[in-house]
Amino acid sequence: MNKRICSLLLLAGLLCPVDLLAQEEQPRSVSELIQLGIEKNIGLQLEKINIPLSDAEIVREDAVFDAEIFAATSYSESETPLTSTLSIYDTAEEEVLAGQLGLQKKIRSGATANLSLTSEWISDNNSTEGLDPRYRSALQLDLSQPLLRNFGSDINTTNLQAAQNQRRQTALDYLFQAQAIALQVELISRQLAGEAEVVDLQRENVSLAQELLSANRRKLEAGVIPISEVQEAETALAARELRLSLAIQRRDQLFEDLNRLLDHSLSQEFNASRLFQEPEKPLRIELPDDEILYAEARRNRPDLQSSQILIENFDLQKRFAKNQLKPQLDLQLLAGLNGLSGDERPGMSSNFTGNWADSFSSAVEREGHAWSVGLAFSVPLGNRSAKSRYLQAGLEKKQASYQQRDLESALKTALKLQRLNLHSTIEQVAIAERFTALAIKTVQQEKRRLEEGLSDTFRMLIFQNDMIDAKIDRISSFVQYQQAVAQMNFARGIILQQHGIDVKLDEKE
């Protein structure tokens, strides 16, 4: 039996440190809860995936200018009837084995370049050709450069620039959502901490009613007071137990709301009371004037920065659409070397005899070359599509500008409202402090009067309720002040910095 008890005690000793360690790992401050929210919130993690998606889009748009290698090979055979008196054959017979290898690339200026090497093996019964079989090889460079429409690096990299802007915008959107998650976590955690304090106060209120009920029952047995005062205490106790139950329900609901934001990372043993901090006396907050505050918020708010990037993207689209109004005028250049070699046909002689490799060297030695220069012009009649796109891009930019102005106007209003809210909550905290001190003093005085027989249960219950309500109002006003600070920090775009949190996106950012 002793061995069994020792084993159980040893097992309990091993398990308890684990439980205590797990409890200690739970967040101990609002800042730690916000950090946990940024790491665990599912919606935020979904938003973060858009960043590598934007990186992939940049690579895809930049890859348009990558060089491309190409190759082709073919074999053909033909017999064509002839009626020419210059030929001793009734049909023209020909076999051709051809191959091509090349490199092509789109250049950011809009030009397309094509460098190709072609070679053919030809065997036929054409008696006018001195070589059979013969090898024809050519090295050729083709270049087409737009001079009006699609001319210039800025125009041809429009999609790439837009993708780069989109990447910046995606990162800012993620940062703004991280700030929004931080605000939600702080608002709920502050309220949860306050509600945990309210639960303790309601328990205190229940204890006061129980003490009064016990005292009244003793007085009733002594014949000092009537039964009605005992009933009043019992009624008050039931009412206070109900208020306690409602407070516990609100606390538990707030805990679940917070835990949902954190992807259920908090254990049920999470102690919300540790989050509550007693207010400083007196509360003070220093803010710059409205113009400085607004300028600071414009620099820090990711949503305003993202809105500005959206306008830049519409600028890119408008510039591209304006370029598309121009006619298509392309400069086309060609330069090449041509070579020939082969076996002499019986009874004939040629200066180009040689094997397949000699067909390349003969291009230089025999000065076989080709070149051309030309212009190609086209324009759609009416050019309605380009005109419509240009008009559309201008209207979309105008829309984005109005949206940004609306954001700026909303920001100005939010900053002013939060300033008023802060000053009001600071005043309310001071009033609640004074109210609480007076209510505590009144209860103490009334308790002495009750002990001296100068008061009754009804009055004592009223003053106890007033005291608990005053304490609850004090907590509520301080929670509202903390929430007002959080909302002001969010409006200023500095809520993460205020909690010492630096959101790192990746190496590029």
Descriptors:
6 strands, alpha+beta, single chain, 60% helix, 12 helices
Task: Give me the secondary-structure topology.
Elements: H1 2-24, H2 30-40, H3 42-62, E1 68-81, E2 91-106, E3 112-124, E4 131-146, H4 153-156, H5 158-221, H6 227-261, H7 290-300, H8 302-323, E5 328-344, H9 358-365, E6 369-378, H10 384-451, H11 457-492, H12 495-498
Antiparallel strand pairs: 1-2, 2-3, 3-4, 4-5, 5-6
Looking at the structure, what is the overall shape? rod-shaped
Radius of gyration using CA atoms only: 43 Å
Query: What series of H and E elements makes up the topology?
Result: HHHEEEEHHHHHEHEHHH
How large is the count of helical segments?
A: 12
Helical residues, percent: 55-70%
Task: Tell me what you see in this structure.
The chain is of the alpha+beta class. Helix content is 60%, strand content 17%. The protein has helices spanning 2-24, 30-40, 42-62, 153-156, 158-221, 227-261, 290-300, 302-323, 358-365, 384-451, 457-492, 495-498, and strands at residues 68-81, 91-106, 112-124, 131-146, 328-344, 369-378. A six-stranded antiparallel β-sheet has the order 1-2-3-4-5-6. The two termini are 66 Å apart. 25% of the residues are buried.
